[in-house]
Amino acid sequence: MPGLVSPGGPPPRITVPETPPQRSDSAKTPPSPSPLPKKPPSPSPSSRSKKKTPETPTNSNTLLSEASLDNPDLGPFLLKVARDTIASGDGPAKALDYAIRASKSFERCAVENEPSLDLAMSLHVLAAIYCSLSRFEEAVPVLERAILVPDVERGADHALAAFSGYMQLGDTFSMLGQVDKSISCYDQGLQIQIQTLGETDPRVGETCRYLAEANVQAMQFDKADELCNKTLEIHRAHSEPASLEEAADRRLMALICEAKGDYEPALEHLVLASMAMIANGQDTEVASIDVSIGNIYMSLCRFDEAIFSYQKALTVFKSSKGENHPSVASVFVRLADLYHRTGKLRESKSYCENALRIYSKPVPGTTAEEIAGGLTEVSAIFESVDDPEEALKLLQKAMKLLEDKPGQQSTIAGIEARMGVMYYMVGKYDEARSAFESAVLKLRTSGERKSAFFGVVLNQMGLACVQLFKIDEAAELFEEARGILEQECGHCHQDTLGVYSNLAATYDAMGRVGDAIEILEYVLKLREEKLGIANPDFEDEKRRLAELLKEAGKTRDRKAKSLENLIDPNSKRTKKESTKRWPGLGFRI
Fold first, then answer.
1. What is the pLDDT of residues 77-114, one digit of tens each?
2. Element spanning 578, H or E
3. Handedness of CA 179, 182, 188, 194 (dihedral sign)
4. Which residues form a coiled coil (predicted)?
5. 397-418 pLDDT, tens digit each
6. 42-47-53 Cα angle (round to 5)
7. Which end of the chain, C or N, has fewer beta carbons within 10 A?
């Protein structure tokens, strides 16, 4: 957690505090950025040699009695016992009772209207123990109580105690998958830190970076861009040129630029980061940056340069980490994707097999997240070569690896959405709808219900509902997707236009011809005025609108088209309908 004891911890990280929050000028090299949330480590033993938990000087029954909690010496003692219990290796479960009673003692002994930093610290320790036991829901109210204890106006110690509480609460919400609440807590912690330390303090830079990474995970790239730029400015002011801190910032900045489609700026940041790492002798990190550079070159269709970057990285990884390290497998996956894009399917398949061989027998120390990420990437290649069955198997393996991991709800939701697409492709619409529904539920819970990705998943779920003749449910999903994509992507984005088309076809199937006409007229107007009419969809939409207007002009009410006929253009029609061709019923995947 940035700015508590040292400013460079990777997110999210929950540890048991050893000392009250205090200012420190120490700095660590930030880790390379990752969009995937990390599993919180269990409280680690102290660097001191292990020792037995000290015996209590009084009878244990007396110690644990409610009356004894009024003793002002008991709280500090119980807190020390809780820490020593963890340090001795006895585990957090035994320390939990000591921490609970320490907090009660501090609360009882607190002077009225006088905020107690000891109480705040004990609540932080208690929450950390709950988190180490994966009891995150129970940690939340403890931390919500802790952030109310300090009085920010009373000086730096109180301010940093409040900051610590907000950051720890943000980490806990992150582990619960509640990304929006997590980011809100981080932001409040940042404001307190800026108020106390000033806007240019190096620790403020680390917190900005921490918050930028959280925004990347939430796919809020504009906010992440703003925060990362601020971090970069602070580090350039306080660090030597080409420092490791600046290199780490530039890697994160490149990730953000790539996500936004700004490939040239991303490439520039990566080249500067690589030069800084070379100057500091960080060969393995240089290789990781080479992989990222290769990704940018591939996005720019500069395939020869991409291959060169990947091969450089592969050579370093094999020599420094071994032939079967997941880093080697990740490069194999990138090469497989590249050769698939360039039509060299035999080479692509070979690299996929090499990667899967490594993931099937991972070396010690490989995390489930690394394997799941690799399997997901390989599945995308199988999907692109029209092998959805094999892609589904890999996605199912990936999801199984992550299902018990805290903080992975958004990642699992993404995998479930991919599985929904695979099921849809092979005609298993019930399974597709179930997969999309599960993904939507997780995304709603995690606070991503306003992201463009969420809108796309809603659109996909709507299409599955159409195939199952759940037309009313499909209309609701398309309507919600339209609102989100209009807000996040704009009216002219292809995803938004696709939802417009799907919604118009759905309204037509429901007999709401007027609403369908209104949407199609709006889409045609957008294409004519802003996008141009060269797009092949323009003629299809124009024809569909002409049919609707012709039918709406009849003196009798138009009956809703049969869903069966709309979904399958080759299904049985009456003679009168035989000339009406609505390929794919106007629905767009």
1. 888 888 888 888 777 878 888 888 888 888 888 777 67
2. none
3. negative
4. none
5. 999 999 878 778 888 999 999 9
6. 75
7. C
